[in-house]
Amino acid sequence: MNDPIPLDLVRLRRSCAECSLQQLCLPAGIEGDDLRRLEDVVQRRRPLEAGDRLFRVGDALQSVFVASEGTIKTVGISEAGEEHVLGFHLPGELFGLDAIGTGYHRCEAIALGKARVCELPFNELAVVAAQLPSLQRQLLRVMGQSSDRDQDHLDVLTRRQASERIALFLQGLSQRYRRIGQPGDEFQLPMSREEIARHLGLAVETVSRSFSRLHEEGVIAVRGRWVHIIDVAGLNAAASGCEVEAKRVEVVRAEKARSPR
Amino acid sequence: MNDPIPLDLVRLRRSCAECSLQQLCLPAGIEGDDLRRLEDVVQRRRPLEAGDRLFRVGDALQSVFVASEGTIKTVGISEAGEEHVLGFHLPGELFGLDAIGTGYHRCEAIALGKARVCELPFNELAVVAAQLPSLQRQLLRVMGQSSDRDQDHLDVLTRRQASERIALFLQGLSQRYRRIGQPGDEFQLPMSREEIARHLGLAVETVSRSFSRLHEEGVIAVRGRWVHIIDVAGLNAAASGCEVEAKRVEVVRAEKARSPR
DNA sequence: CGTCGACTTGACTAAAATCAAACCCGGTGG
DNA sequence: CCACCGGGTTTGATTTTAGTCAAGTCGACG
Predict the structure, then answer these.
(1) Which of A212, A245, B171, B185 is the most buried (most CB within 10 A)?
(2) Nearest nucleotide to B209 by CA–C1' distance?
(3) Between vectors from CA B91 to CA A154 and to CA B104, what angle results, nearest 5°?
């Protein structure tokens, strides 16, 4: 609605050197002059509001992005017009690489809530990377990490049990939150059930039911978008498909004890 | 069993400049001296036999690879010990990038039959790429294409209907065969049903049944690993989930007409 | 307080997994 | 030459699971 308040402007100008994500992001391991040259490439952006788009399908590659606050989702659109969520990008995570192969974006990037990103014009980045071996190495590494997240997603999607997918999804989020210094056992989901469903290839109802079941089993506590991971071992078990059965039997038994008949 | 015959040795030595895949592979758009410098990095390999492994989970990143003849599969292994097939790599396709993020391979690469690959020691490649902007650009592009294939795979896995997954899988293979100058409408599958199943997140039986159904519908002809795509439009329809219904109804009707009662 | 959207829950249905049994085909050895 | 394996593959019957449709419930917000 109104212009960014002064504080925002200050943060907007904040350099990579001062950024709390520095060690997780592209600048990791880059120092001195090299870091300053990288900073010249990085454009900091005005805050994004929920639903704001950074790029759309078919847009020519201009920049790649790093989330710096909030969460961005990337969404692919099938010919039938169905959307599926390719990834959720937390602070420090690079995205927008999908355009590198063809030169055009294959998906679109949308802010899930108030968010902020750093934009890196790709051509400039490539030029500077060619000049700075440390940056080239780091760029490749960060690109690789981005592929690793895609791989993890793939891993999740090959699981047949909905409960496994949900458990793995939560585990993954948990780890990623810890990585950025936030509690991994208690957090607010930045995305809706619908978005989780379209990320995991499930129906919304199935997502909801899986959450409920994990809750009943005492593995997690959920209330709306608030999640608390109570039993890490239990979540691991659920993620690998085994022992969940035993757990459930236990719960059912407890239930029967409470209300015989 | 016995040593490679002389012909093989000749092919082994063949340079990128003489390679039929040149325009599809890393050297595309690289010429003269630059090409010679790239060739210095590329190591050509002895032929691989079915089941030969190029790297295993946990191996440190040494090289990335390009298939040059035959097909290589990459296989990820879940904690539970289940294998799932991450990708099939046809001639001209780069793989082994999975180690770039962490420095260690997350999957293993196995030849599906007699095959041949070009090996590119990653560090050398990175050094040369830093010196040759054309190679750096091309390397990024080829890496992007590799991600694009992963993305396509992901696309396939989010489809709920088994028939859609199979149809998309066949479409994808068809395109990729055409790309390397082989007929896209008639080919031998280099992989088993089991491997297809583990690639698509389905049971073997489901894969088999889906093939059979597409066959009955007259969309494709299958006999063992031999596949002939008869009705491209039909395959497209099956891939996007719609109209298959109509097709099937038709077939059922025809069936009834043939054997009333 | 009412309304709207997001989420949950239940009943039913459709689809794929599973279990089990044949089948096909290339290779082996009698 | 043919009988007999044994793998990969197909097919059938049954069970399990998630999808679908339809009601609710919850919670934020005007």
Answers:
(1) B171
(2) D10
(3) 45
Q: Are residues B216 and B101 in the same domain?
A: no
Q: Among B100, B106, B145, whose Cβ lies nearest the Cβ of A141?
A: B100
The tokens 């790297």 sit on which residue?
A: B55
In this structure, the answer to whether residues A126 and A228 fall within a common structural domain is no
Does residue A160 lie within 7 Å of nucleic acid chain D, judged by its CB? yes
Domain C-terminal end among A146, A176, A196: A146
Domain of B178?
A: 162-258
- Tens of pLDDT, residues A105-125: 999 999 999 999 999 999 999
pLDDT digits (tens, 9 = 90+) for A157-195: 999 999 999 999 999 999 999 999 999 999 999 999 999
Residues B86 and B123 in one domain: yes
- Let me know whether A141 and A182 are in one domain: no
Q: How many CB pairs under 8 A join A and B?
A: 115
Query: Which residue intervals of chain A are DSSP H helices?
Result: 6-13, 32-41, 122-131, 133-157, 162-179, 193-200, 204-216, 232-239, 244-258
Report yes or no on B153 lying in a domain: no
Task: List the structure tokens of B184.
Answer: 């896209």
Coil, strand or helix at B207: helix
